[in-house]
Amino acid sequence: MKNRSSVPPVIRSARPGATAGPRDGLRSPPRPSGGITRADRIADQVYRRLRQSILYGELPSGARLKEVEIAERLAVSRTPVREAISRLIGDRLVHELAAGGVEVVDIRAEMEEIYLIREALEVCAVGLAASRIDDKQLEVLESLVETAEATSYRQHRRRAALNEAFHLAIARAAHSPRLAALIADFREYFLNPSWLSQQTEESAREALKDHRAIIEALSRRDRDTAEAALRGHLGRSFKGMSPDQQATSAAEPGGKRQERKRKAASTA
């Protein structure tokens, strides 16, 4: 029987000395296995660790988070853990139990709604960017696409990082920090590079063609076309996921995803 009251392995296996990187850098998406350092506010680091663990499926639905156990495993006081959990409640990633404590929610049932919110935010951003983007920012987008085109299809983590950098660069080109922050938060639900590993090579090429179309529309300052191109791009990406993938893109542990992928490959 599953022991939901125990601290999940992702917390138990924390390695001292590592730290989460910024979401907008050209690097592989941050993994939640690093330890707590004193570089940033401890509460912020604990929050990022727990949030990423939930979105990566390493803290599964039904897992209970206990302040004392988490604090002990991360070698911090209970105060930053309490603050982090409070923020996760606000994110609707955990909920309070009547008997006390908090439990990770099942976000799989909300993935379509989360996708629609993400689409609305990113379409708004590209529309603003059409009139606000500068030549340097266009060059950054062009460079990212060129690098992605030269990247092997099998380099899933690299492609995930380039894709994330492209979309966040558009968000920054809107020159709306609040909007960019919201987009970064919602993109985290789809950030796991193992999702890209489930794309076909053909769909990966089509996605890059979409990126080119978006850049072309932005270079012409064509808001309507840019919005339509991005909306179509996001829609095709989400529809390209099977119902099972849509339900588990932000909630299935990486090991299970890889095992499912190996089984599929063996029967292809």
> Residue ranges: pLDDT <50 for 5 or more in a row?
1-6, 12-33, 242-246, 248-268
Radius of gyration over C-alpha positions, nearest whole angstrom: 19 Å
Q: CATH topology of the largest domain, which one?
A: Four Helix Bundle (Hemerythrin (Met), subunit A)
Level-2 CATH architecture of the largest domain: Up-down Bundle
Overview of the structural elements:
With 268 residues, this protein is mainly alpha-helical. The protein has two domains: 9-106, Orthogonal Bundle (Arc Repressor Mutant, subunit A), CATH 1.10.10; 109-258, Four Helix Bundle (Hemerythrin (Met), subunit A) (Up-down Bundle), CATH 1.20.120. It is 62% helix and 3% strand. The protein contains 13 helices and three strands; from the N terminus they run H-H-E-H-H-E-E-H-H-H-H-H-H-H-H-H. It has helices spanning 9-12, 42-55, 67-74, 78-90, 111-132, 135-149, 156-173, 177-187, 193-196, 201-219, 223-239, 243-248, 254-267; strands at 64-65, 94-96, 102-104.
